[in-house]
Amino acid sequence: MSNEDLFKNHIGVIGAGHIGRALILKLLEKGYPYDNIKLTYNGSIFTFSDISDNNLIDMISSNAEIVKISSILILSVPPQAFKNIGNFNLDDDTLVISFMAGISSETIKKQTGSDNVVRIIPTGPDTIRDSQAIAGVYGRNTCAYELFQLLDIDYYVVDDEKKMNYIAIAGCLPAIFCRVPSDSDEAIEAIKK
What we know:
By secondary structure, the protein is an alpha/beta fold.
């Protein structure tokens, strides 16, 4: 799929916290059409301030509207908030990409209605913005993989969803080992502390 084909998808981001905003800003940086991205957030004044500062206000929508128009739905809410966002009754072909740790594909499928679920556990939002993110991925979908490539996420597909638990636990540790040379001044200073 070319970027032109990928860019035709309407992306809905449910949860515009740190990860959600990092994804949106990276998509825009890569040329994704502004009008093909919508977002929701929980009403936090701090999140709204960041949304405003990044000129994303026109993307704000409701969960109901996002579910209706999106061909790709990104879940980036805190795991404990997932049940509160409601059932979506999506079509089976709607791609759901979950950035939530600890919520299984089966649970996501039940609540969203889509059988087309891919889970991803990346390093932090700053690594996404800086094109330094690495991630574990469970689920197979070419469109999702192309989106991760567009976002410059260095991802690794695991064959057993239970392995995602280890990826979530490890957090940013793999990024440190993969991205910071052990003999760099930064690494030596960190070890001294």
